[in-house]
Amino acid sequence: MVTLPDWCPAYSSRKKDVETGEEVFCICKKPDSGELMVGCDGCDDWFHFSCLKMAKKYNELVFSFYCPYCQAGITGPGAHNDGKLPKTLWRRKCRVLDCFKPIAENSKYCSEEHAVAFMRGLVDRVEIPGQDSSLVLRQMLQEPDFDHFKNLGRNGLPTPSADLAPGLLTNDGTLQDLEAQLRELRGGAKNGVETQIEQLTQYSQWVQTVNDLLFGDNTQENANGDSAPAGGKTSRTRKRKQTVKRKAICGYSSELKAPCSAEDFVAEFKQLDSESTELKGVCCKLRCVRHSDWLGTRQTSLQFQLESLQSSEQRLPLLIKIRQDQLKMQLYKHITKA
Q: 190 with 112, same domain?
């Protein structure tokens, strides 16, 4: 467990106003007044941006949010997993300074317009005395100079012999650290996330089977006529219109493992009294606000982690190659001066 920020009050499990009986949220324990809020993926509570000292302009950059209590291990998954406290994940911001939208896929910018604007700004800052800098830069990218430029250093620097530079690539701390990161990533980190995705997929199929046995065809149509799984967490400021809603139990379980066969579960479920909301650790509410869209949120979070690891798996070999070339260059410069 870690210390809470100075501005965050001690945790309170109170869910209702003692005087009005209204549902309360956030660290301020006040009802929802329509102010911008973000849902915690750990404890499922909602928090005001202002109470969290978060600027509203960062709204679209929040990917997976964990409140101060979950990050401190007081609530959420960190309260049960020693040493594994969750952290809020953010989408990468557009490179344009005053833009706070997330980057588009395979880009460093939110849009093509901002990409052009950013590069135009770089060109405008280039000053070549007595010449038009933009014209010079365009000429540099014309044939045949561009092909010649691409071929420079394509084969890399030759590795010096062990006699000339003993331990050049084996005794460098930075290089060793990069190689260790790559080994760790390939050795278990990525496999662990892939295993969690497979486990989540199997469990979601089990929940789907339970709902099909209980209520028949467990699908619903959105406003566009597309089929989608029943349930779904919706932002308090964005609600999808749906033409059909079918019954379905929430199905959330902290273990994400089927406690028994779908048939046995359904048989026991039918014996429950109307006040029961949980069976074998599985949430059985038909309209569950607390765990709404738990499946979609978890799938998105795991997919984001996997993509981040895959990106690191591509980036680390490049960093290793760059570091090796740096070491070789330093050696050759030293030999040249000598």
A: no
| Of 37, 65, 91, the domain-final residue | 91
For helices 133-140 and 112-125, what crossing angle results, to 10°? Answer: 110
Count of domains observed in the chain: 3
C-alpha dist (Å) from residue 22 to 29, 40, 43, 229, 235: 10, 20, 19, 31, 20
If asked whether residues 5 and 114 sit together in one domain, one would say no
Q: Is residue 316 part of a domain?
A: no
| Tokens encoding 229 | 């799984």
Residue 67 lies in a domain: yes
Instruction: Identify the pLDDT of residue 189.
Output: 83
State the average pLDDT for the chain: 81
For 222, the domain range is 173-302
Across-strand partners of 229? Answer: 219
pLDDT higher than threshold 50 for residue 67: yes
Grouping H, G, I as helix, E, B as strand and the rest as coil, residue 11 is: coil
3-state secondary structure of 282: strand
Supply the CATH number for residue 58's domain.
3.30.40.10
Identify the pLDDT of residue 127.
62
pLDDT tens profile 176-233: 999 998 888 888 888 888 889 999 999 999 999 999 999 886 444 443 344 444 444 4
Q: What is the DSSP string of 45-112?
A: -EEETTTTT--GGGGGGEEE---HHHHTTSSSGGGTSTT-----EEPPBPSSTT--SBPPTTSSSSSH
CB 195 within 8 A of CB 203: no
Which amino acid type is present at position 200? L
